[in-house]
Amino acid sequence: MRKQKVLLALQAVKQLIKLDENDPGSHRCLIRFFHKINNLPAPGTDSEKLIWNVLEAERPDIRQLHGKSLIEVSRSFLEKYNASLTHRTAAAEMMYLLEPDKKMEAIKIIEDSTNNVASGSSVLGSVKEWQIQDCIDVHKLLETVFGDQDAANRWKARCAEYFPYSTYFEGIKSAIAAYSVDNSPENSPENGIAPNPQVKPNEGEACGVNGTVHIVDDMSSLSIR
Which of the pair, 124 or 105, is modelled with greater confidence? Predict the structure, then answer.
């Protein structure tokens, strides 16, 4: 982080916290910023010392950091929002950032999340809390930040059950799943599924010839092209 950008970044973090200190994104920015600051070399020049003094003076104004390490701040965040997938994911990601040796524990925090039934009633029946975009973001995080393809695959399979129409998760009712079934080896001519040209369709059935659908019934002269 460039020295001249440090104070601007600090003000941006403070503004995010002021707008919504409970937001997972605000938590990520807070932890990332001070983790970066904590890993900077000791100030050498007068300008660096001045910036450092400003940071030390501003830090007490951030309530979340009062008397706590960054690890403790992230743990408190997890405890406070333990029932939320997005908050658990943010806490897990920051745990991995602060304690890389706890990668599997961080992944477990995500995988132990529970998709509860949302409050309120619906004409369609019970509705789960998780949103599909949040689940997609978690899957990408497991693949990229955590670099754990097995965990990503487990998450994808789990979400495919929650979102059966999702093409991203390849749910059983998605277009991708339907295409896979239609083009499976079992439905290929080599496996005896090809239509027999000598078998005539029953009355009222439709058959296709070179892209033209003919209505086979008493009004055989009519066709839809």
Answer: 105
pTM of this structure: 0.74
Structure tokens at 106: 């961080």
**26: closest CA among 35, 17, 18?**
17
pLDDT in tens, 187-196: 544 444 444 4
Q: CA 49, CA 135: separation in Å to the nearest integer?
A: 43
Decide if pLDDT at 224 tops 80: no
d(CA 9, CA 15): 10
Report yes or no: 6 and 37 within 8 Å, Cβ to Cβ: yes
Angle at 176 between CA 172 and CA 179, to 5 degrees: 100
Rounded-to-integer distance, Cα 164 and Cα 167, Å = 8
What long-range pairs does 66-75 form, CB within 8 A, spacing at least 24? 70/31, 70/34, 70/35, 70/38, 70/94, 70/98, 71/95, 71/98, 71/99, 73/30, 73/31, 74/27, 74/31, 74/98
Domain extents for the chain?
A: 196-225
pLDDT at 186 exceeding the cut of 60: no
